[in-house]
Amino acid sequence: MFSAAVRLSVSGARSLTRTHPRCQALLASRCYSHGKQETDEEFDARWVTYFNKADIDAWELRKGMNTLIGYDLVPEPKIIEAALRACRRLNDLASAIRILEAVKDKAGPHKDIYPYVIQELRPTLNELGISTPEELGIDKV
Questions:
Q1: pTM above 0.85, yes or no
Q2: Are 47 and 64 in contact (CB under 8 A)?
């Protein structure tokens, strides 16, 4: 009697630990992209408008940059220019340098992106009196 109970419990345990289910259901997928897709130009315009707000404060600047850097892209130079001008309006040099550092970090292993962005921003950097992290020597730390 005891051996029959052990046999049933062992075979029952095996059936619970099967790796291949007997019944496979089709997976349902949902498409939530019914809304309008934003174009690159609209995306850029939205962020330039955000940073060009006359009443932007330091918190909104940091929040906007955190959100922007969270995307899987390197921001266009015109967006970075608007953010740097917002830093200048706020008299916040530290945030301006952090923005440039974040752009360099977002460029990652693509060594040609960051020099291109700096080249495009050079007139704005000179106009606003903002030095790059390389010019300040803090890129080697």
A1: no
A2: yes
